[in-house]
Amino acid sequence: RHPLATFFHLFFRVSAIITYLFCDWFSNSFVACFVTILLLLSFDFWSVKNVTGRLLVGLRWWNQIDEDGKSHWVFEAKRVPTIAASTEAEARIFWLGLIICPVIWTVFFFSTLFSLKLKWLALVIAGISLQTANLYGYIHCKLGGQKSISRVTSRFFVTADVPKRQTRRISEDCTEEHGKMGAR
Questions:
Q1: Domain layout of the chain by residue ranges
Q2: Rounded distance, CA 19 to CA 17, Å?
């Protein structure tokens, strides 16, 4: 069990969101609010990427630059079942926090955009970027990297496309039969 890791997995995320919502009430300084929220988002990104993902679900990812200057994402999953590394509740907390927070920052993006508070837009975009980078990395880890994701998505689109192809085939058959009948 990793209660401290679970606490910090949520602490920085929730603190950044709460600070974003209520910062104007406690401070008149835009710069102080901006820097505080950005630091909380950065602490969250680092702790999730380097500590809590490894402890709570047995996954980690990183980005490497090879000698040619090309960027490569590396995804790693423990071979030991994740239940042995943490409890089921910790894993649920990890994934819920990882998924819900980017959604919240996306809502903040649209509310900031529509309320024309454009000075906050850069901060919200940074929040979305940091949160979705972690989400992207951990989804790749969970599914086994790029090859598994491409297989999963291709299977999804193939199965989603089957009814369309069947419908198209049936409608083509009907038009062919109708065309033959009309030609006689």
A1: 3-181
A2: 5
